[in-house]
Each structure stands twice: as C-alpha cells, then as structure tokens.
C-alpha cells in the first residue's frame, strides 16, 4: 500500500490515525514525529504567514504522502488539517532515518522522492510567475493541481478565491476547460485553440 521507499519499512514503524473533518495530523510548530500517507480522505497543508494569511502548500488525497521534508527538521512548518474524514498512516521519523543510514537502496529511493518534490515546487513557483490569473488557473488545472477545493487551489497558486472563480468561469465559457461537477474542472482545449476560435 505504501509507495516506495516507505514500503520497505517494518510494520511497527507505522501508526494509523483516524481524523474527523477539521482534526489536525499536526500543527505548525509541533515537534516532528514522522511523515504521512493518506489512506482515505483529504489533508490540506497550510502555513500561516507572519501577516496572518493562510497559504496552502499541498492538498493530499488518498495515495499521497505529505511532510517528507520534516525528516530534516525538528518542527513542522505548517498545519496538516483533515478537510474530510480521513485515515492516515504516520511513518516513524526515527525508523526512516535508521533505515536510511543502514540501507543504500532505501536512501537512494528516498533522495529520488525528495528530488521529485523539489521539481513539483519549482513548477508551482513557475505558476506564481504567470501574471495573468486566467492563464495561471488554466495551467494549474491542466497540470492536475485542482485536487481539493477551488479555495485551496487559489491559495496554492497565489490568487484570491474570487479571482480564481472568475478565471474558471471565463475558461469554461470559452471552452478551454470543462466543468463536470461542483469544483471539478478539466482541460478541454489549449488556450491557443480558444484564442483562434477552433473547436
């Protein structure tokens, strides 16, 4: 069930947590105890800025890992809140670090996983550099970032929820995106096709 390399850990390294909507897997500033795997439900990782604004860092759904970077930090740097009833597995930080020291294959696979996360964050930085809200929202949806609520997506890509909703409506009206349900959108056409008026 666990993705590599965490599937190589012994079962006693795992703790199952059952979370109701609104429960925290951890809070910003808590001492790090491990990384997490979402069995069911959804977890939103949110960081409070010094100005008091909430910034979404990740929307983790079933099959996703979160808080891997906490392996190298003494304290969690964000809140992990269940946005739906959820079951998560916490994998012991000490068990992971011990296995990393003793097993070169495990260590290499963990390094590869963390490198993939860096690539993902660089993609997010690229999205933030796009000035047009419409284009930013289109690229975020096309790359699969709309995995939670529209409000969470807006926070993740640095827009107000109002700007995000307006962009989604414009993109849907112009045929670039299709809407399949509340808060559910998918890429339909490229922006270039919509500009050219092609079907």
**Low-pLDDT residue spans:** none
Q: How many distinct domains?
A: 2
Rounded to the nearest angstrom, the distance between the terminal CA atoms is 42 Å
Proportion in β-strands:
25-35%
Fold-level CATH name of the largest domain: Jelly Rolls
- The assigned CATH architecture of the largest domain is Sandwich
The number of strands is: 10
Question: What does this molecule look like?
Answer:
This protein has 199 residues and is an alpha+beta fold. The chain has 2 domains: 6-103, Jelly Rolls; 130-196, Arc Repressor Mutant, subunit A. Helix content is 36%, strand content 27%. The protein contains 6 helices and 10 strands. The strands form 3 sheets. The chain has a 4-stranded antiparallel sheet with strand order 1-8-3-6. It has a 4-stranded antiparallel sheet with strand order 2-7-4-5. Helix 1 crosses helix 2, helix 3 (133-142) packs across helix 5 and helix 4 (150-156) packs across helix 5 (161-173). The protein is elongated. The mean pLDDT is 90.
Question: Strands, helices and their partners?
Answer:
Layout: E1 14-19, E2 24-26, E3 34-40, E4 42-48, E5 54-61, E6 65-66, E7 79-82, E8 86-92, H1 93-102, H2 104-129, H3 133-142, H4 150-156, H5 161-173, E9 177-181, E10 184-187, H6 191-196
Antiparallel strand pairs: 1-8, 2-7, 3-6, 3-8, 4-5, 4-7, 9-10
Helix pairs in contact: 1-2, 3-5, 4-5
Biased composition (Basic and acidic residues): 181-192
Protein name: Cyclic nucleotide-binding domain-containing protein
GO molecular function: DNA-binding transcription factor activity
